[in-house]
Write a structure and sequence with these properties.
By secondary structure, this protein is of the alpha+beta class. The chain has 2 domains: 4-97, Phosphorylase Kinase, domain 1 (2-Layer Sandwich); 104-272, Alpha-Beta Complex (Aminoglycoside 3'-phosphotransferase, Chain: A, domain 2), CATH 3.90.1200.10. It is built from 9 helices and 9 strands. The strands form 3 sheets. A 5-stranded antiparallel β-sheet has the order 1-2-3-5-4, with helices on one face. α4 (113-129) runs parallel beside α8 (238-254). It is globular, with a radius of gyration of 21 Å. The chain starts with a helix and ends with a helix.
Length: 273
């Protein structure tokens, strides 16, 4: 069965071929994420962009507009994000600059973690410092509740085939209320929502490159640093996590972000998140 999206993409790329020196025969899958989006890498004879990334986002499934909006916000904040070089919003195609294929996950080690996490913390603080209320959708009570509910519907029921008793459901509801109260009381900033080692690219300048930011919201300040240091794909000792977290907290305070002046209070919020 023909891939109609791929056919459409090639037709679109053909219209850009001369402008960007595209080499259609080189088109190859680059990555996919937990959505309907696909990414392809294509070689180019352009002097500034030897390779480029093509995003395919089927418009009947999702829109490219959030990606464009958040990319602009992050670029304005000084973060290293893909540049949107060409777009067809109606068809759901973007041509992006290529940040390479060296993820944090592929290179992180005990010997370089402190430097890499310092760079990531600096990028995160730049994004948070640029935050303005009303620009991104709020990470509000309803959104938090939908995500907390996945613990029951996906983890307990689907993976463990376990159904909570009424008493357990009530206890879980109380716990969720406490979590939400803490999260919503924290300083609210731009939240990437997937700020971890698979979405951070190691770059020779302005490290790291930041990817997969299109679902960003305005929410709790500890969310992204938890994503980074409690990463599902790499594990550190509690002592190492504390070391990285203290450095982030010190940098955030120096940058004027409204984090608790006592690290113990900040760490409590980190743990609640």
């Amino acid at each position: 069965m023909p891939d109609n999206r791929l056919i459409q993409m090639n037709q679109w790329l053909d219209s850009l071929k001369s402008r960007w020196g595209l080499q259609p025969a080189s088109l190859a899958p680059a990555s996919a994420d937990a959505s309907f989006r696909r990414y392809f890498r294509i070689s180019s004879s352009h002097p500034q962009y030897p390779s480029l990334i093509v995003m395919d986002a089927p418009p009947d499934k999702e829109t490219v507009l959030p990606f464009i909006q958040v990319a602009n916000l992050m670029k304005e904040a000084g973060l290293h994000v893909p540049l949107v070089l060409e777009k067809d919003e109606e068809k759901g195609f973007l041509l992006l600059s290529d940040l390479g294929n060296k993820t944090y996950l592929s290179i992180l080690s005990p010997s370089n973690a402190k430097v890499l996490y310092r760079d990531a913390s600096q990028a995160l603080i730049q994004m948070q410092s640029a935050s303005r209320e009303g620009v991104l959708p709020p990470y509000d009570d309803a959104t938090l509740q939908r995500e907390l509910d996945l613990f029951d519907s996906w983890y307990l029921k689907r993976h463990l085939q376990y159904t909570l008793s009424d008493e357990e459901s009530n206890q879980l509801h109380t716990i969720f209320q406490l979590i939400k109260e803490n999260n919503l009381s924290q300083t609210q900033v731009y939240v990437h929502r997937d700020f971890h080692s698979r979405n951070l690219m190691h770059c020779s300048s302005n490290n790291p490159g930041v990817l997969d930011f299109q679902d960003a919201l305005y929410g709790p300040i500890t969310y992204d640093i938890v994503s980074l240091l409690r990463d599902a794909y790499i594990e550190w000792t509690e002592e190492e996590v504390l070391d990285f977290l203290i450095e982030y907290w010190e940098m955030a305070r120096a940058a004027g972000l409204n984090v608790p002046p006592d690290f113990a209070d900040f760490y409590r919020d980190f743990e609640w998140m």
